[in-house]
UniProtKB/TrEMBL annotation:
<dbReference type="Pfam" id="PF08242">
    <property type="entry name" value="Methyltransf_12"/>
</dbReference>
<dbReference type="InterPro" id="IPR013217">
    <property type="entry name" value="Methyltransf_12"/>
</dbReference>
<feature type="domain" description="Methyltransferase type 12">
    <location>
        <begin position="71"/>
        <end position="164"/>
    </location>
</feature>
<protein>
    <submittedName>
        <fullName>Class I SAM-dependent methyltransferase</fullName>
    </submittedName>
</protein>
<dbReference type="InterPro" id="IPR029063">
    <property type="entry name" value="SAM-dependent_MTases_sf"/>
</dbReference>
<dbReference type="GO" id="GO:0032259">
    <property type="term" value="P:methylation"/>
</dbReference>
<keyword id="KW-0489">Methyltransferase</keyword>
<dbReference type="GO" id="GO:0008168">
    <property type="term" value="F:methyltransferase activity"/>
</dbReference>
<keyword id="KW-0808">Transferase</keyword>
Length: 281
């Protein structure tokens, strides 16, 4: 079943994915190292990386005083990091348990945040107001079937002149055989209208068992991501590709500053992430 192409409706796939992500919440609360946020200066390695990448495109190089919407925020760790960088934050996710965990974490650390339960594909209708920054990172958009609809939500949430930022796993990485001893392609790079089905009993950060193991994802080549954003009327400001991933995609990956990477001999052969910065005119 893992990696097989299947035809499934969005509603059924979404329901299966929601059950899975609901199961992940207590696992991730245990495994994410939330005690690190007891340090008021802690923002997390993902946010620290993304802030450095966003800084050249922000007013005065800072999020201070800006309204920011974090799509697919999960349990809110990165949302809190962004708030600590000075933003007024709204976190959006489809998992009620994740948002409850996010609200608990924010309250514990005195973070003023708004949490909205909705599918990201319906975000504009569910979220009040508009934003200087819309942010997505990381491991997010493979869960979405329709990137044109996703990009339309992003554009509609942004104020004129507002910035969209995404760093996510590279689709070329996702096409690799994560169990191989070499860089070997195993899965589709391009979309074909079907979902990819997975049956995995654990999460990416823990060996703890998850009850609802079936999930569905959609391959999106880099061209599809960029063209969806352009089609929604955004202007591309920067496209980057990176060699370090915040989680261990393959057991062959080695620990480096900021996450995991392929061994030295292979590091220049395969990107691990892509980053897009775009703006609404």
């Amino acid at each position: 079943m893992n990696g097989d192409d299947v035809t499934i409706g969005w509603a059924d796939a979404r329901e299966a994915n929601l059950r899975n992500w609901e199961d992940r919440v207590p696992v991730h609360e245990e495994a994410y190292g939330l005690d690190a946020y007891d340090d008021p200066d802690h923002r997390g390695t993902v946010v620290d990386h993304d802030l450095a990448a966003m800084r050249p495109f922000l007013p005065d190089g800072s999020l201070a005083g800006l309204d920011l919407c974090h799509l697919q925020c999960h349990i809110g760790t990165d949302t809190i990091g962004l708030a600590r960088a000075g933003a007024r934050v709204t976190g959006v996710d489809f998992s009620p348990s994740a948002l409850e965990a996010a609200a608990r974490l924010a309250a514990k650390h005195g973070i003023d945040a708004t949490w909205v339960e909705t599918d990201v594909l319906d975000a504009r209708a569910a979220v009040d107001g508009d934003f200087d920054v819309v942010y997505t990172s990381i491991g997010a958009i493979t869960w979405l079937a329709d990137l044109d609809r996703w990009a339309a939500q992003v554009a509609a949430l942004l104020r004129p002149g507002g910035l969209f930022y995404i760093r996510d796993g590279h689709p070329a990485l996702y096409a690799l055989d994560e169990e191989s001893d070499h860089l070997v392609t195993r899965y589709r790079y391009f979309g074909n209208g079907t979902s990819t089905a997975w049956d995995i009993a654990t999460s990416y950060v823990s060996d703890a068992q998850i009850a609802h193991t079936r999930t569905y994802e959609w391959p999106h080549p880099l061209s599809e991501v960029v063209n969806a954003l352009l089609g929604a009327g955004l202007r591309l400001e920067r496209l980057d590709e990176g060699t370090v991933l915040p989680w261990q995609f393959s057991k062959r990956m080695v620990k480096v500053d900021g996450g995991f990477a392929w061994p030295d001999a292979e590091r220049a052969m395969m990107p691990c992430t892509f980053t897009v910065v775009a703006r609404r005119d």
